[in-house]
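FW: tagging you since you asked about this chain on Friday. Here's the raw sequence from the shared folder, copied in full. Didn't touch anything.
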Amino acid sequence: MKLTIKPILSIPQISKGDDLFEIICHALNTSRISLQDNDIIVLTQKIISKAEGRFIELRSVHPSSYAISQARICSKDPRLVELIIQESNAILRIKPGTIIVEHRLGFICANGGIDHSNVTLGNEAEETVLLLPENPSLSAKLLRQKLIKKFGVNLAIIIIDSHGRPWRQGITGISIGFSGIPGLVDMRGKPDMFGGILKITQIAAVDELAAAASLVLGESSEGRPAVHIRGFPYDLREGNFQELIRPKSQDLFR
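HL: got it, structure written out here
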């Protein structure tokens, strides 16, 4: 089976409290996509965060003395730095323009995953930021359960964001939460094409899908926050986001 990735069209601008289930069902119908077993829906974190009301107005934030001191180093608004600290387990690196943190969800990212772009319209845009979903995997699970109940098929949901990577320029799509799909596909113990036995190969399949989906979603003004994927070459199973997080004892980049 070939792998296909198609945009789910006609999803409007999302506001706090919007019912993403109803919106996605309508968009699937408009896009003439009939769900089948083993299909995957990939959503940007932005529409999850917006629906869940993860907006913060900077004028409501009161930075600590620590946030103010760090803001001087990175040349950022102290109120934004305060939010980055609140969203993080630890600050790992800081330099002008960037703060690299361990997010409270466990992954490493820049600026606490806090988004300034395409958040709001009008004069309030510069003063409003968007935090990542409180629990992306739970958000994916709840949406998936509703879709399974409505359509009667087994499917998976992936929520993605754009991240940079050590030693590489540019950003790529990466999963920050999912339901109904493995984070890692473990190939250890299986034969390679020459009959040798694989010893260390574990495929970050959910991140590979996230990166592929981001090519269709776009990274700027495209306005496509969801895609449909069919033809995933591995079995679906319930995964756990923590399987993607490298243990600190094995992390050579900190």
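FW: The chain has a mean pLDDT of 91.
HL: agreed, and Residues 136-151 form the longest helix (16 residues).
FW: great, closing this out.
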